Every structure is written in C-alpha cells, then in structure tokens.
Task: inverse folding
C-alpha cells in the first residue's frame, strides 16, 4: 500500500516496528513484485520528503490525514492501537480498517431493517466515525523475505474497495484510481460481499492448511483438502443469504483463484511453522458472533477450527515442556 501511494505522487508516513523499522531507517523499504516465479518489478524506497519511516505515531507533527490505513495483525487491533491513531482520524479523514475477520461495521448501513446498525464490537467501533469508513480487502500473496523487505508473490484481484456511506464515495474512487496505476482495484458489485468472501476464504484455507501442513501447490492436488475448504465456504455463505447480500463469486471460482498462487504458503501456516502469532481465533470469533445473531449453524467449520486449535495448543505445550 505504501509503495502504491508513493509511486503515484502521494506523501506516505509508514509506522513500523522492531527490526523492520531499524532496517528500513538504514536502507529503505525494499519491495519485489512477482507473477508467481516471474519478477515484474523491484524497488527500494528510501526516506525523502514524501516517504517517512517512523516507529511512533507521536512523531507525526501534523495530525491532518487524508487517509489512514490500519494494517496491524489482529492481535494488535485493540483499544491501545486505536487510541494512538484516534488523533489522526479527523472529521474528513477516510479510514480503512483491517478486514482479516468480519469487521465491526458489518451491519452498518445495511439494507435490512431487522439487522441494520447492530454493533457487535463496541470496544472497537467507538473509535470510528461511521460515515468515514472505506471498506477494502486484499487479494494478494506476499511474504516478508527479511526485515524491511517484502516479496509480493502474486496479485490475484488486488484491492477491491468501496465506501460504506455516501460521504466517502468520491474518496473511494480516488483510491481505486491510485491502486489501478500500480496494482489492481476492480469495481465490485457489493463490497460487503467482497469482504465476506475474502474472510471466509482466509478462514477456510488457513484452517485446512494448518491441519494438513500443505502449501498451495499441495492443496491443489489434494481433493480431500479442497472438499473441506468447499464445505466450510458453503456453510459461511449462509450468512450472505440470510442478509440478502449477493454472492459475487462462487465457491469453485474462489478455490481456483486462491490456488492460482502456486508458490504460496498460507500466511497462518507460515506463522505456525515459525512459531508466530496465528490469527485464526479472531477470524472464527467474528463468524461465530454473526452466525449466532442470525441463528445460523456452522458445525463443520467449528469442528475444523477446534481440531486445528487443539493442534496449535499441543505444539505450544510441547514447546513449553521442552524449554
């Protein structure tokens, strides 16, 4: 996102932490963009008047921002983080929250009187101006090669986005034009459907990937794994049907699209292998909360989630014992 904004002439303030901050402060941000095995572009962006690398939001002197992208992992998407960002989320600032899980704004401005404006995450939503939310998801396969260096392995659909309320319609279209110059931002028939499909895709694929420890290439050759993914996705699609939200991409196309990144390993499987934080729990909890509001059963998804979490807990227990 920082690369796309900077490359089209905009000023970027990138908040980084730890080794990423230290390395980028010294040598700049390195990005490599590939189409699976073919390198299409490679660049290092060093600090200048339009590209600032910071490790604390308090280093920003001017709080007036046109756009704020919140791109933290789910474990850091909390009140502490939002309190630190709140001074920069002004009355006219477009804000793009994370969408790994089904977001707090899921029922906002919903064309359904029964469920319109239900707030199922008030501890998060209270920091946002509803009308300023732009919804954006990310269909890209990437990996951190080393501190300060990202390899974009494959761009699938890029950054589909849309405003939740009319106030930000024009701003959303400006962002789409920016992304389309350097990446991709397709027009989507329904951004709520788009984000749901990305979330259920992430939950289904990552759950099965951790369970089997297969990368995309292995999953593409394993019918049993694909059947599990398919079953979880179909369970999730009940949520869209209950709310009369169109299903803009069918399950088979989603599976084909994801497995087109043949050299990719699912992000949570990569985290599992590295012993890092895994985002599966907040992802499932968002589906669980919404399915209960809608009185929908997701029995197989729950079974797979509990199976994988048991595997993760066993590994963590054995690590503690070995220490």
Result:
């Amino acid at each position: 996102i920082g690369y796309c904004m900077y490359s089209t002439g905009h000023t970027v303030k990138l908040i980084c932490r730890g080794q990423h901050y230290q390395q980028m402060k010294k040598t700049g941000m390195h990005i490599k963009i590939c189409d699976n095995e073919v390198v299409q572009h490679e660049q290092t962006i060093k600090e200048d008047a339009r590209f600032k690398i910071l490790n604390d939001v308090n280093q920003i002197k001017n709080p007036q921002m046109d756009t704020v992208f919140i791109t933290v992992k789910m474990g850091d998407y909390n009140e502490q983080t939002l309190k630190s960002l709140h001074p920069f989320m002004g009355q006219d600032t477009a804000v793009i929250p994370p969408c790994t899980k089904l977001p707090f704004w899921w029922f906002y401005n919903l064309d359904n009187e029964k469920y319109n404006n239900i707030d199922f995450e008030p501890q998060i939503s209270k920091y946002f101006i509803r009308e300023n939310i732009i919804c954006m998801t990310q269909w890209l396969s990437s990996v951190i090669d080393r501190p300060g260096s990202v390899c974009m392995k494959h761009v699938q659909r890029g950054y589909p986005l849309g405003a939740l309320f009319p106030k930000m319609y024009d701003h959303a279209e400006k962002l789409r034009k920016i992304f389309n110059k350097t990446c991709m931002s397709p027009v989507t028939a329904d951004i709520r459907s788009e984000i749901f499909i990305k979330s259920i895709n992430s939950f289904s694929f990552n759950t099965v990937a951790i369970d089997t420890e297969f990368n995309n290439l292995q999953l593409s050759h394993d019918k049993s794994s694909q059947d599990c993914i398919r079953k979880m996705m179909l369970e999730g699609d009940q949520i869209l049907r209950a709310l009369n939200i169109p299903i803009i991409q069918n399950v088979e196309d989603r599976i084909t699209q994801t497995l087109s990144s043949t050299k990719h390993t699912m992000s949570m499987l990569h985290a599992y292998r590295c012993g890092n934080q895994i985002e599966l729990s907040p992802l499932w909890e968002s589906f669980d909360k919404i399915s209960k509001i809608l009185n929908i059963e997701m029995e197989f998804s729950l079974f797979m989630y509990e199976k994988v979490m048991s595997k993760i807990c066993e590994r963590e227990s054995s690590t503690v014992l070995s220490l």
